[in-house]
Amino acid sequence: MIKPIQEKHLADCLDVIHRSFKTVADEFSLTNENCPTNGAFMPYARLKNDYQNGDYMYAFYAEHEIVGFVQLSKKETNVFELEKLAVLPDHRHNGYGKQLIDFARNKVKEFGGRKITIGIIEENEQLKNWYLTNDFIHTGTKVFPHLPFTVGFMELFV
Length: 158
Prior knowledge:
single chain; 4 helices; alpha+beta; globular
């Protein structure tokens, strides 16, 4: 079941984000020093700020436990950014990530949006291919000097 979170659930969602992003941080040797903006190292204040600024946040519940998370941030009139899509490692490969994407797609439609964008670690071929199989298209890359990887950009028309 996917439902909107309340502020009192932010700490639980942050734990899901930390634990989910840690696997990728470990795989790509990301640390708080070389990539402090990665979800594995995100401070509570950043998530709370996003919540208070009106970003849409949803939790995926399995047996009354939060095991997934997704955030939508309105960027332009018809464009939303999908952020912090996370599924706990022990709950992956059950279709929860796809359910979160489908849910986000429907929410963006409901909000009058037409496109979802996302930025990923370009070198993470497994993740990039997963998004491609979920109807995203790859639109380009950019190197940011402060990041230890190339950012890949993808989008999904709803």
